[in-house]
Amino acid sequence: MSIIYVLIPLAILLVALAIGIFFWAVRSNQFQDLERQGYSILFDDDLAESKQPVKTEKTEAASGITSNPNKHD
Length: 73
Fold this sequence. Notes:
The chain is mainly alpha-helical. It contains four helices and no strands. It has a domain at 12-54.
């Protein structure tokens, strides 16, 4: 029975902490743009392509890759 004296204040503390975190999230505009994450799933391939380094003629020549496979040097 003495454990109840520990559990009730602990539960009140956890609820107060959860409410505090919720109000912090609302004040810091965490819920303003709810659609962005849904769209990021659809368009993440475009982002991955734009982050790849652009190959130049020098990097292609250094790696041995040619843009025209029928061209022989």
